[in-house]
Structures are given as C-alpha cells and as structure tokens.
Amino acid sequence: MTRAETTKFLGQLLIGQYFSKFGNHWASEVSVDPWSANGKRVDFMQFSPGDQMSISGIEKGIFTCYEVKSCKEDVYSGNGLNFLGEKNYIVTTMECYKDILPDLRGSKFHKHLQERFPESSDYFGIMVAIPEWRKATEEFENPTPLDDNTQNWKLAVILPCRPGPRRRSMTELLFCMLRSGH
After folding, report:
1. Strand 62-68 relative to strand 87-93: parallel, antiparallel, unpaired?
2. Could you give the CA distance from residue 16 to residue 6 in angstroms, rounded to a whole number?
3. What is the DSSP string of 106-147?
4. What is the pTM (predicted TM-score) of this model?
5. CA pair distance 45, 26, nearest whole angstrom
6. Total H helices, total E strands in the chain
7. Each residue of 13-28: pLDDT tens digit?
8. Span 149-160, pLDDT tens digits
C-alpha cells in the first residue's frame, strides 16, 4: 500500500472501531488557530462526556486527539503531532511502531516533539493496526502486510495513554470540532 492508502486505511479503521457507536462526538481535520502563524490541524478529535444528561457530566468530558501516521517518515515529517487533548494517540502500523520504538525509548522522539510541536502534550499513547485474529505480541514478532479490507483488522493499544492536563478550553476545542464539519 502507498502512504496515502495506508493513511486512509488507518483512518477508516479508527472511525469504524472508535467513532461509529452512539454517543461518540468526533471530528476529522480539526483546525486550531488556523489564521495564525501557529495554526495546527489534528487528524481526529473526540470528545467523551462523563454523561450526556447533566451539565456536570458534560463538563467532566475529556478530549482525545488522534494523529494518523503511515510510516516513520510521516512521524518526522513535521505535519502534525498535535496532542492537545487529555489523551492523545499516534495511530499507525506495526512496522512504523517498530521503526520508531528506539526513538521512543531514547530521547529522539521527545526532542522532536518539543522542538517542532511545543504546545503538544507529552501524554500520548500508540495504537497499531493488527489482524482481527492476532494478538499484538504475535504481530510485533511477524507483522502482517496491510490489505484494503478493514473488516479483517482492528486497532490495538500497544502503548496506553495516561490522561494529562489540557491547555485549551473545552469551548474552544468544541468550536474547532464543530467548525471542521466532521
């Protein structure tokens, strides 16, 4: 698969697995500060309220940002690692995860994140696409080539994200999601 096809595949997998259920509030291509020199675009943003029946439940909601990356070059391209939510994930392939793993264990990735995206949170995790019938550990040892049928694949959280602080207001991020059109 090409980089564009891989990116599309991962996006469709994310939508199917995480956003297609009732009560999920999400948007794609979310622009934040689009008219400034510091404009950012988040591939996918999700708002998860504590509940949908009370003001306090909505106010206790959290934002999760997802950045889809098809390969190591995409991770370091400078095109968005905008982690603006309480939780943030890189959505990628097992091959890409294996390629960036030494950088995650060392300091290269964190230095890149701080230099290129200083507003991004250090609170992030990683999801990888794996075949429906496999475990992440098996897939790590012997990655399966991607195909174009998302029904045979799922996203596995290979590096969980612990929630961290958010620097942007709920109103601002919800407006950015609304403005994106979906």
Report:
1. parallel
2. 15
3. SSHHHHHHHHH-TTS-S--EEEEEEETTS-HHHHHHSPPPP-
4. 0.94
5. 5
6. 7, 6
7. 999 999 987 777 999 9
8. 778 899 999 999
